[in-house]
Amino acid sequence: MDLKQIAKDTTKTLISYMTYQAMRVVLAQIDETEPKRAYWLHQFSARQSIQDGEAYLQALFREEPRLAFRILTVRESITEQVADYLPEMLRTGIQAANIKQRTQQLERMTQIDPTASSTHPEQEPESP
């Protein structure tokens, strides 16, 4: 298990997610002031995958640098606000999710199946 690689991959995923959230914030902001531009950003985001946030921004810079810079600024702001809470929330979130999964699995394992082949007294064959 390469923990450094896991951390790098996780960071890349978080950066892309922050890019997505920043795009949503910018889209909501300009929807009120510049509906045509908001429509354009919505269409662009539907065409251009935001799965890789950096590739998305590179494509956006080629077409609308002003929007790309705005998303960069919002992304940085969101990240600064979230970063302090993230480690503890991640730990407690994983612990809670694991407990829930374990509980559900234990419940499934301990449920009695009413259709299981058990012998009922009324179904026992009579002795000769």
Detailed description of the structure:
With 128 residues, the protein is mainly alpha-helical. The protein has a domain at 23-80: Non-ribosomal Peptide Synthetase Peptidyl Carrier Protein, Chain A (Orthogonal Bundle), CATH 1.10.1200.210. Helix content is 77%, strand content 0%. It contains five helices and no strands. α1 runs antiparallel to α2 and α3 (53-63) packs antiparallel against α4 (65-83).
Topology:
Elements: H1 3-33, H2 35-47, H3 53-63, H4 65-83, H5 86-110
Helix pairs in contact: 1-2, 1-4, 3-4
| Average of per-residue pLDDT values | 90
State the helicity in percent bands.
over 70%
Q: Find the CATH superfamily of the domain at 23-80.
A: Chaperonin-like RbcX
Task: Outline the low-pLDDT stretches.
Answer: none
Biggest pleated sheet: none
Which outline best applies?
Answer: elongated
Rg is: 26 Å
State the end-to-end distance: 66 Å
- Helix-and-strand structural type: mainly alpha
Strand content: under 5%
What's the helix count? 5
- Please report the first level of CATH classification, the CATH class of the domain at 23-80: Mainly Alpha
At CATH's second level, what is the architecture of the domain at 23-80? Orthogonal Bundle
Please provide the ordered H/E string of secondary-structure elements: HHHHH
Q: Remind me, CATH topology of the domain at 23-80?
A: Non-ribosomal Peptide Synthetase Peptidyl Carrier Protein, Chain A
Number of beta strands: 0
Task: Please provide a brief summary of the model.
With 128 residues, the chain is an all-alpha fold. The chain has 5 helices and no strands.
